[in-house]
Each structure stands twice: as C-alpha cells, then as structure tokens.
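Below sits our specimen:

——
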Amino acid sequence: MHPASYMITNFFDKAMNAKGLKLFAASNERFFAMDSSFETVFKFDLFCSSSDFTCYVLAKDSDGELTQEHSVNIAWTDGPAIREFMEYVQGMRVTSA
C-alpha cells in the first residue's frame, strides 16, 4: 500500500513528464521539475500530514527566478479540491526566460 502522499508525488511526476520535464526529489519534501539542461522550471514544496497536504508551487518568472505562483492546503478527504489542484498543475505552462 502506498502512503497518501504518493498520489500527489506520482501525479507530479506524470504531469511534468507530459510537459517534457523530469521530476527530481530532494530529501526534504521538495520536488524540482527540470528541463533537459537541468534548469529548474517548477518547484513543489509539499508538506503532508495524516489529515491534509500543503503545497507551494514556484515557477520561473520572466527574469528566470523562481517565485511562488500558487499555494494550497487540502484535506485528504476533499476530492473536489484535490482534482482542482491536479487540473491546475496540468495546466501550468512551461515558459522560457
């Protein structure tokens, strides 16, 4: 059985692969979506508890800096909010600086 956080991290991996990016995990619940030249395009700071998860989404801005673009705190029991967050991530656009 997978932990609940696997649902989100596995989704991040698939969504970033669909955008041509590779997802790399740091040991502290941070995930970096990088392009083929290892430039970080998105960063996900994910914090999971037994009742909910919080995620801060950072994206590269026009100056090439990572800035916070979105944040959520969603209960594991809130299916509609989880789906809305997943739709948001799928809709994120890869832009070049």
